[in-house]
Every structure is written in C-alpha cells, then in structure tokens.
Amino acid sequence: MRTTWPEGFVGTISTLGSHFPSNGHAFSIHSTFPSTINLKDETNLLYALVMHQRQLHPCSAVMRLSNVFSDFTMLGLAPGRKAFLQKNRLCFDCGLWVSFVGAKRVHPDKEAPPVVSLLSFARLQKRGELLSRVQYDKGTLLVYETLFQTHVQDSGFSGWFVPHARLLLSGIQAKDLQVSKKGMLSLLGLGPGSTPAGDDFLCGFLLSLSMLSLSYGDASFRAFVQAWLNQFVKILNSPIQRTTDISLQMLRSACEGLYPQALISFARTFSEDASDDVQYETSLQVLSEMGHSSGYDAASGLMFGLVGLFPMS
User: Fold this and answer.
1) Which of 169, 255, 279, 298 could be joined to 200 by an S-S link, Cβ 3.0–4.6 Å?
2) CA-to-CA distance for 214 and 239, rounded, in angstroms?
3) Are 213 and 311 in contact (CB under 8 A)?
4) Same domain, 284 and 142
C-alpha cells in the first residue's frame, strides 16, 4: 500500500554534510530545538537539520525555512514523528515536507583534519590567552587557562574537570592506553547540556591528535593514536551509554576523521603559515555561536592537545 503525503512545504535544504543520507532513508524525530531538528534512523544513528551554516557537521543538512516560520519549534514536530527521504524531499507524517532540490553536498576533505604548521610557543600562548578571555566574558564553565594552572582554585566545575584532562594528556604523552582511557572515560559525558563540555573537549582533543599524527608524529605515535581511537570507538559503541545521543554521533564522526566545519576552520588557523591572529579571532567568533559553550570547549580541547603534544619551534 502506497503512502500519500499531504502538501505542506516548510523549507529548502541548501547544504548537506558528507554523511547525511540520500534517498530511501526513514527517520523518526529524536528532538527539536529552535535551530536544530535531530533525526534518528532505523539503526539509531542520529542526523540533524540545522538552520545556520556555522552549525554544519558531517551528519547534518542546512535548511532554509520558508518565511512563515522563524524557527524549528514552530513546525510542531514532536519526538516520535516519522519522516522519509525520497525523490529530493524529506516528508513528515504530519504532511510537512522539505525540498532537497539543488542541495550541495560537502566533500569529506572539507571536514577532515588539516596538517599543522610549526608554531612558536609564544604564539600559542597568545592565542590561549585570547580564548580564556572570551570564555571568562561569556561565563563558560570551562576556561582554557585553568588547564595549565599549577593549583586550580576553583572548587566547582573546573576543579573537577582539570585533573581528568591532565590524566588524559599524560596518558597520551606516555603512550599508555590504560591511563589515557581513565582520563577519557572521566571526561565522557561530563557536564550539562545536549553535548556536555567533556564531550566537546574530547572532540577538539581528538582533532589535535589527528592533526599531529598527520603532520609530525613518528610511526609509533601514529600507531598509538590509531590504537587509542579503536579503543574509543569500542567504548562509544558499547551497550553502556555514557553520554547523550547527540554527543555519541559527534564523537563517532570524529573517530572517523570527520568534524564540524566551524571547528575545522578554527583548526586551519594552526595549519597555514600565512594564517594570522585576525583569522584566528574570526574563527573563534564563529565557534562562540555553537551552543552556550560547545565551540569554546572544543577549541580548548584542540589547543590543549596541540600545546601538550606539539614539537615547538
């Protein structure tokens, strides 16, 4: 029996992440936020429709709403509603549909880690100070500079977070899978929100490992990073769920070497010899618009990995 869909156009997809599905895919609504609709497929993988280009990641699609609606919550798409992607449109079982005509797909290379240029400690320190300053201004739970303080005075979130981050780094530095695993497990799911600060930090840290492995890591370091990633994937796919569905999808993509474009743009400011501090500040501003602190938390993880593991000039 053929299903018919009543007409109800609500928007157009302009850009597809490299891993967003094509025709013939079925979903149910996982959750809806003002600028994001999360979709779960039949294998429990999570995808997203997002309103802004800065939100684009490998498993998402950027959607321009029709003029009738100002955000996704106005569509009334409750969790559990069904949707099906076919013939260049995504149709919901309530009669609404989204056009995919003319959508352009991002090449995976645009979501992949860049190589690293040789950076001085002074330059990294200056950039770290700027990151910390904007974090203080925004009132984020995690502030980059606390990761390096000898004695963390904060008895709140930073005081809890920092020892786990340092344990993770020390395990990587020593190429010790068990020590780094303890640090990683302590950070996984740590913090409030749909993507906890610990997960965003881990995403950025994973990116730094991939960048360094591509650029300056010797064969033993590359082998260790691959073993660490394999271990991480097993934990993410285990029956014990340690964090949110949204974070799991983000981290699984990261383990495949695919990252949000805003984070890749930030990473490229450490990979291009001609990159200046203006480009760094611009990319940091884009990250500031990813959740309350998600972008900054990921930036902290990336810089923490680079400073802790990168051979300085």
Assistant:
1) 298
2) 32
3) no
4) yes
Residue 3 lies in a domain: no
Total residues found in the chain within this entry: 313
Rg (CA), the chain: 20
pLDDT tens for each residue of 21-60: 988 899 999 999 999 999 999 999 999 999 999 999 999 9
Tell me the two tokens of residue 148: 């390096």
- Beta-carbon contacts of 116 under 8 Å, excluding residues fewer than 6 positions away, are 211, 212, 214, 215, 216, 270, 271, 306, 310
Would 4 be classed as within a structural domain? no
Q: What is the DSSP string of 56-73?
A: --TTEEEEEE-TT-SSGG
Could you tell me if residue 2 is inside a domain? Answer: no
Average pLDDT over residues 183-195: 94
Q: Which residues contact 1 (CB under 8 A, 6 or more apart)?
A: none
Looking at the DSSP bridge assignments, the partners of residue 15 are 62, 104
Tell me, yes or no, whether 86 and 214 share the same domain: no
pLDDT in tens, 29-39: 999 999 999 99
Residues 38 and 150 occupy one common structural domain: no
Does some domain include residue 185?
yes
This prediction has a pTM of 0.91
Question: Do residues 38 and 129 share a domain?
Answer: no
For residue 119, give its domain range.
111-309
Of 112, 83, 76, 123, which Cα lies nearest the Cα of 100? Answer: 83
Question: What are the tens digits of pLDDT across the range 273-302?
Answer: 556 788 899 999 999 999 889 999 999 999
Please calculate the CA angle 74-193-207 and round it to the nearest 5 degrees: 110
Tokens representing 293 are: 């602190």
Task: Examine the domain organization and report whether 301 and 229 are in the same domain.
Answer: yes
Beta carbons within 8 Å of 67's beta carbon, 6+ residues apart: none
